[in-house]
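Researcher: Structure prediction, please.
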Amino acid sequence: MDMLEGIRSRRAVRDYRDEPVSHALIGAVIDNAVWAPSGMNRQPWRFLVIEGRETLARCSSAAKRLMLDEATRRPELAAVRGMLEQPDFNIFYNAPALVVVCATEPGEMAVKDCCLAAQTLMLAAHAQGLGSCWIGFAETWLNSLEAKDWLGMADGLRPVAPIILGRPAAAVAAPDRRPADVEFVRLGGT
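Model: Predicted structure follows.
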């Protein structure tokens, strides 16, 4: 697959076939993700892989509970309340695996570096025939003490990018894109 074709054809996948993804394939995707750029080549990331639909369903329930609690205090979350209240809604869309890109250092630069690794991971997954989707609903819960204890997360790790992986159940249509909003600036000189 041509790189530009991969960029344009990658989609957020929210429907997966009921089959696991091998450790070898997840490892290959992560091996490509570590080639993402990072400030001063610090590579401040660790990849936590959570597997199994039942495990992820339990994580989903815990994350939904926390997000519903947050929605009572944060009006911007009111629009998603109905979806989160549905007992059968799984925030991980029944994917077989979740890869959490975690920052190993404090500070916003490490977070930015993890975002670059996450995008590279999603492109690498797409190149391997896997679907992926960044699950923002999981971020608050993954950063909670409850989740860190339950998952045995090492001290000092900051979950940044929860990315589900799996075999897409069907092709996903391309959403419309707005034209690029570009402004060129040149100050002084030629």
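Model: The chain has a mean pLDDT of 95.
Researcher: Thanks, that helps.
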